[in-house]
Amino acid sequence: MTNIKRLFDGELQVVNMGSKTFAKELAAQGVGVVDVDWQPPAGGDSRLLDALDRLEGREEAEAANREAVERIAAARPVLVDLQAAHRVVPGMTGRTILHAGPPVTWERMCGPMRGAIMGALLYEGWARDEKEAAALAASGEIVFSPCHEHQAVGPMAGIISPSMPVFIIENVTHGNRAFCTMNEGLGKVLRYGAYSPDVISKLKWMETVLAPALREAIQLSGGIDIRAMIAQALHMGDECHNRNKAGTSLLIRTLAPYLVRTATPPDTLAQVLSFIDGNDHFFLNLSMPACKAIMDAAHGIPHSTVVTTMARNGTDFGIRVSGLGDRWFTAPAEIVDGLYFPGYTSADANPDIGDSAITETTGIGGFAMAGAPAIVQFVGGTVADAGRYTNLMYEITLAESRSFTIPQLNFRGTPTAIDLRKVMSTGVLPHINTGIAHREAGVGQVGAGLVRPPRVCFENALLAMAESVK
């Protein structure tokens, strides 16, 4: 009792861990207090703690993760061609429409995705007008399937229909391929749900004019190393998700000498170069499939806890884990916290949408924001925040990239290979920077910001992984 009395008779210096309420009350009473930002692993949930214990230190998981990390590091995505989707995308048969994110039915699709689906039906000539397109989409005659289940990715609504030209990215190390459409630019575009005659006309121009010119140039080049281009763009201020100014410039610089050697008429060539030059996001539709080709090489490794997919369809957020095969773990998508264009607020926003989080899954995008300080003018926050986000991601990843480095961190490799176990043990969720779509079809982008996946996706994946090793 004497020691206790001595303790309370003296000046108290308190370290508080857990509930911040205690720290606030002590501070209000003039007591010196240091509040430690700490929470128990897995939020203290006994089921999740048991799952973590079951997975901890298992040699088969450690070996599987070493293999996954090595596959990610060794992957080299190269742009090799540009062809109509129905010619090259696996499973693109009959009346199939691919979309972003995990599986979703027409009835549950958000406004931008519904609009983009209707636009694709008009583009393909399967419907003559808006009314026919809506009826056909709801009829059950169209097969809707996630891009990710067909070696593909797509920004925002992520729609791929059979006639759309797709970039072909080949991972020359492992032999797998990934696919993505060309980027339409900003404004009223299909990926935001617009389907007016002008939108369809632009898509047809991209199919009949832009694609043939680029196809010939790509073939003349013998292949363009996109991994090297991403690495260089990261050294020039891009993070290759929401900032692609350097990547697009590097692409034009690489393509131009081959474009002028094609049979493309001079006037058409000028249109092609002007179109790419006028769209800073053109490179996004190459960085995304490059990342897809990298992560697919690490997918399907038994016992691996590496997250290989994070994707959103505007209704649900879904993840896939290497050791759990093609099973999706989903939860309702969140509203993005960000900066809105004049005249718009969060009330106008659609929940998080698009396959572009494949960039963060690979270790760029929001994971590389320390190297892209200018991005905060677009997504919000400060330059210090950008560095903090990147440093925080090292806590939930297994490795540092050997290809993608950040000059501002003394050329440290970006954090790569998200470990399901680390996410749950630290309580740190991946940081994703992203555009914000209007909730109504066709309005377009209304802002940009930061979002994190729903925690329950990782919780359910962890429980499933633990169940698999019983």
Features:
v583 fold, Enterococcus faecalis V583 fold, 4-stranded antiparallel β-sheet, 17 helices, globular
How are the elements arranged and paired?
Elements: H1 2-9, E1 13-17, H2 20-28, E2 32-36, H3 46-55, H4 59-74, E3 77-84, H5 85-88, E4 96-99, H6 111-124, H7 130-138, E5 143-146, E6 165-171, E7 177-181, H8 197-221, E8 224-225, H9 226-234, H10 245-259, H11 266-277, H12 284-297, E9 307-313, E10 316-321, E11 329-332, E12 337-340, E13 353-354, H13 358-362, H14 376-379, H15 383-393, E14 397-406, E15 412-418, H16 420-426, E16 432-437, E17 445-451, H17 455-468
Parallel strand pairs: 1-2, 4-5
Antiparallel strand pairs: 3-6, 3-8, 6-7, 9-10, 9-13, 10-11, 12-17, 14-15, 16-17
Helix pairs in contact: 3-17, 6-7, 6-8, 8-10, 8-11, 9-10, 10-11, 16-17
Question: Can you characterise this structure?
Answer:
The protein has 470 residues and is α+β, with helices and mostly antiparallel strands. It folds into three domains: 2-38, no CATH class; 46-71 and 300-468, v583 domain like (v583 fold), CATH 3.90.1700.10; 75-288, Enterococcus faecalis V583 fold, CATH 3.90.1710.10. Helix content is 40%, strand content 20%. The chain contains 17 helices and 17 strands. The strands form six sheets. A four-stranded antiparallel β-sheet has the order 7-6-3-8. The longest helix is centred in the middle third of the chain and has 25 residues, at 197-221. The model has no long low-confidence stretch (mean pLDDT 95).
